[in-house]
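Report of the visiting student (M.T.), summer placement. My assignment was to run the structure pipeline on a short list of targets and document each run. The first record concerns VOC family protein.
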Amino acid sequence: MAIKLENVGIAVRDIEAAIAFFTDLGLKVVGRDTVSGEWTDTAVGLDGNHAKIAMLETPDGHGQLELFEYIHPEAIESEPTRPNDIGMHRVAFSVDDIDEALEIAAKHGCYPLRGVGTYADLYKLTYLRGPSGIIVMLAEELKKGS
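After the run finished, the structure tokens were exported:
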């Protein structure tokens, strides 16, 4: 059986704020819609399912996020996940310049959980709290000999 990752879906409280954050980081919106009806009730498993959705894609075309803002049923606020919580953990992006990416994130009120670390002289990386409490990992590959 062939399998491929289609996208990562994230429920957000404010789809416009989430779109602004991810597009400022470099993703592009490739589709938007409002969905409802029997097919969504069945597929998602929620009666009366009605949501605004947006599909975003990385510039290389290999990664996609699908953002959802629920209109009905009402979205349920929960505590933001922590890095060691079981379940959906984070979304990670490679960036050319982590400092620039952090400046962009800060414009959206999003900051590292602690700071930027260096892994084995290979990557500079950080976890930050993105829109709607999403944990976002940013990683910059360190170039050897440059």
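The longest strand covers residues 28-36. DSSP finds three helices and eight strands in the chain. I thank the supervising group for their guidance throughout the placement.
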